[in-house]
Amino acid sequence: xxxxxxxxxxxxxxxxxxxxxxxxxxxxxxxxxxxxxxxxxxxxxxxxxxxxxxxxxxxxxxxxxxxxxxxxxxxxxxxxxxxxxxxxxxxxxxxxxxxxxxxxxxxxxxxxxxxxxxxxxxxxxxxxxxxxxxxxxxxxxxxxxxxxxxxxxxxxxxxxxxxxxxxxxxxxxxxxxxxxxxxxxxxxxxxxxxxxxxxxxxxxxxxxxxxxxxxxxxxxxxxxxxxxxxxxxxxxxxxxxxxxxxxxxxxxxxxxxxxxxxxxxxxxxxxxxxxxxxxxxxxxxxxxxxxxxxxxxxxxxxxxxxxxxxxxxxxxxxxxxxxxxxxxxxxxxxxxxxxxxxxxxxxxxxxxxxxxxxxxxxxxxxxxxxxxxxxxxxxxxxxxxxxxxxxxxxxxxxxxxxxxxxxxxxxxxxxxxxxxxxxxxxxxxxxxxxxxxxxxxxxxxxxxxxxxxxxxxxxxxxxxxxxxxxxxxxxxxxxxxxxxxxxxxxxxxxxxxxxxxxxxxxxxxxxxxxxxxxxxxxxxxxxxxxxxxxxxxxxxxxxxxxxxxxxxxxxxxxxxxxxxxxxxxxxxxxxxxxxxxxxxxxxxxxxxxxxxxxxxxxxxxxxxxxxxxxxxxxxxxxxxxxxxxxxxxxxxxxxxxxxxxxxxxxxxxxxxxxxxxxxxxxxxxxxxxxxxxxxxxxxxxxxxxxxxxxxxxxxxxxxxxxxxxxxxxxxxxxxxxxxxxxxxxxxxxxxxxxxxx
Length: 741
Known about the structure:
Blueprint: H1 29-41, E1 43-48, E2 53-57, H2 60-86, H3 91-94, H4 99-106, H5 111-120, H6 123-142, H7 176-183, H8 193-197, E3 214-220, E4 231-239, E5 245-250, E6 255-259, E7 269-271, E8 275-281, E9 288-292, E10 294-297, E11 300-305, E12 308-311, E13 313-323, E14 326-337, E15 340-346, E16 349-354, H9 359-368, H10 375-382, E17 390-396, E18 401-404, E19 422-423, E20 442-444, E21 450-453, H11 483-492, H12 500-507, H13 518-527, H14 534-538, H15 540-547, H16 558-580, H17 585-591, H18 595-613, H19 620-623, E22 624-626, E23 644-645, E24 659-660, E25 670-671, E26 674-676, E27 678-683, E28 689-694, H20 711-716, E29 720-721, H21 726-731, E30 733-737
Parallel strand pairs: 2-5, 9-19, 22-25
Antiparallel strand pairs: 1-2, 1-30, 3-4, 3-21, 4-26, 4-27, 5-6, 6-7, 7-8, 8-17, 9-16, 10-11, 11-12, 13-14, 14-15, 15-16, 17-18, 18-20, 22-23, 24-26, 27-28, 28-29
C-alpha cells in the first residue's frame, strides 16, 4: 500500500494496562533542579536578528538541552501538542471526538514498551533523551506562567514516541472513519448484516482535494556550478509553522542548521559544515494490508494461516477523554494478527496493517545523520533503514550528490499486487526482511550533474541517467510522475553555472505545467461550438484571456485566477469519479471529460469569481494571500484583516514554490496553509554559504517581533542570509543568554 487533559496518572494512557510503577524512578527535586542548572550553565543561546536560536553546548547532551529549551520558548504549545498526538492523548484535551485518533496511535505506541527501549538504549542516546526531557522541564520550571494543556512533565522515553519527523507519519495512513466503524460498538465477526449486505460507499474527494504534502529537493554537482561547489535546495512542503529554523552545536562534533520538527532534538531537514540532506515524502510501498480470514470458536477469534489457525491477540486499550467539566474513559478491545493490528473491515473480512515500528533505531538514525562528515558516514546512517516515509536528496563539500528513494523497504514477492490488501492466510505474502540500501533505488554522482525529487517517481530524478523502472520491483516506487517533477526537470536540464541565486530562481520558476495538456482541450471545445450556442459568446472573453496566457503565475495575472478556479472546479466535480476508478484526477479530467463538461466548468468558475470578487477578471494577487493572525495551531482567516499577496500557486498545478489552502474554505480569498514553509539553498565548500526563509517567522507568539517578520520576504520569494558561523551571529545579535536567564 502507498504510503502517523488534566494530567492523569501514567496508567491512564499506557496501552495494555501497563502499571504506572513501571516508569523509571524519579530523582529528588533538589537533585533534578541542580542537574538542570548545571546543564543550563554549559549552554549559551544566541538569538540573531530574526529570532533564530543558535544553541552552543559543551556536549551533545548540553546542546540538546538548550535546543529543547529554545523550542519551548518559541512555541511550547506546538511542542506539547506533538507529544499529545504522538502518545494518543488528544481526546484528553479536545474531547470524545478525538478518541479514534488516539486509538490509532495507541495501536502502536505503548509507553511501557518505550520505557523498556529507553532502558536498553546505548548510553550516548540515553543522555540525549534525558537532556531532551530536562530542557523542556527546565523551561516549565522557569516559566510558571505557562500552563500546559496536558503534559506537565516530560520523561526521557517520550522522545521515542516521536522519532522520525515527517509531517504525516506512517500510522496516520490508517483511515479513522474505518477504524471507528470497526471498533465503536465492539468489533464483531461475522460483521453485522447491514455491513455484509450493502456495498461500500464510494470514496469521496480526490488527490487534488487539498494542497499536497511533500517537498522538493534539488542537488547540483560542482561541474554545473559557477564556484565549483555542490549546491542543495531544501524545500519542505509542510503545513505552515510545523517546523522552526535552528542551529545546534556542541564540542563533540554536532553543528546542524535547518528545520526541526517541534519537540524533536535533531535537525530534520538541513545541513552541517560538511554536508546536507533534504527529505521528500517517499513513494515506495512501506505499509501493507492483509486480509485476515476469521474463525470464531467459543467466543474467541482465530485467523487462518497456512494450513492452520492462529489466535488473534485481544488487547484492551483505555482511552481517557475530556467530558464536560471532568474526565471520562472508554475501553476498546482491539485485535492483532502477527501482521499487525486489525484496523478496518472490507467485504465482510478484517484487515490488518503492517508498518515499521522501530522507534529506537529510528531515533538513532535521525540524530547520527546530522553528525555525518562525509558520504560514507551518511550512508552508514542509512543502513539502519528506519527512515520509512522519506526519500533523501544529498550533497556535500567533497562535491558528491546523491539520492535515496526510500530507506525502509520490505522485501516481498513481486507477483502480488501490493497496492491493495493481500491474502493474510498465504505465507507467501510475508515480508522477507528488508532490502539493503544498495538494493533500493538510488543515485550517486549521476553524469548529468543534477538530482531532483518532488514526491514523484525516481525515473526522471537525473534526466537520462535516472534509475530505470525495469530494474526494480514495482513496490519500490508507487508514485507516478507529477507536474512538479516535469517542471523540475525543465529548470535543471541543460543549465550550468548555477549559483545559490540561480538555484533559487529555478525553485521559484513561475510555470504551471498542469495546464499544458488541459487548455488546448478547452480551446478546441470552444472552437467546436456552433455559432448559436449560448456558451460560444458567453465564454469568448474568458477563452481569449486564456489563449493569451503564458501559463505562468503572476500577481497581476487575471488568467492565472481563471485557470486555477476552472481547474479547481474540474477537480471538485470529477475527482470522486477519478478516485473510484483509481485514476489520478489530472489524468482523468484530461482523458475522460466531454468538451461540454470542460466548458461548463469554465462557466461555473467564472460565476464563482464574479460572485466573490465582482468580476472574473480579478488579478491573482487579490485572491491568493498570506495571513497570520494568531498563534493558534489551526489558523483562522478573515478577509477583512490585513494580508499579503502571494504569486506562487498550488503544487497541484505544478508550482515548484507550492502554496495552498488545506482547511475548508470559509473566506472568499485563498489563504495559504501548506506548501513552502522553510526554504534554504546551501553551497558547500571551505565555508558554508546559504540563504533561507520561513513562512511568517520563528515565534508562535503574536506579541513577538519574530511572529511575522519574515512574512513579506516569504510572500515575495526573497531569502535572508543564513548566519552559520558564530562570528556572523555575533555581528547580528539580538540576545545572548543561558537557559533560565
